[in-house]
Structure prediction request, 246 residues.
Amino acid sequence: MIGFRPRAWETAYRRRRRRALTEVPYYREHGVRPTPIAELLPELYRLCPLARPWRPEREPSLWIGDPGPLRDALVSAGLLRRGLPVLEVREALVDWRRVGPAPYATVLAPDADTGGPARRPGLLQAPAELASAAGGALLVGGAAELDRLEPELGVPVTRVTRSGGAGGLLLYDRWLGYLGTWREECAAYHLNWRRFHARRTPGGVSLTALDRRRPTLVDVLAGLPTMVVCAAHGRPAVPGQAFSVQ
Ligand SMILES: [Zn+2]
Prediction:
């Protein structure tokens, strides 16, 4: 796999930016500037290229994403195994079947809307059976969610914590998804630079999604305080201590 090349990364960012300004209604109107993710959430229509608009009657919310970033994060953490199921905590079910070589199932978050508490055990059955048949699974979610869901599932799992700041194994934003993976020896999160460009701005780290155009996300602020180039690996990273001085 090709290593991190700063110039190619910057070129990819500029290309995204240019295309956003010419092809995507939101950016044509507002220009590109670092913008909190919360401001973009209601803008799905206008964040899609003019040539490929969002059609809510035919496709789900584009914020759901795809399994690729989760796969990358688990590979980077050294946890993804063929046949070892990946159970991911979500607010709603998705119809994914696999994450790379591993079977996948959604585990509904403890406070997800299930249409009544009586339905919850039935909805947990599929992930529990998957883990039980494989003799284990990765359970990916926030630490507090995992505390509640582990006993509820009742099968042995390996906890994979995610958080928007220090403390989780995976660096995660509810809308942008999996951004990076904690590296103990670097005391930092390595950013997934193949999928995200990142740059420092006065308001924090500004992220640009390099791998998707629906929605087109350029210069989004998602609460990352700062970034560095990891001295040991020469790639973009967010130091753990950056969150404590925020
Ligand atoms: Zn490193």
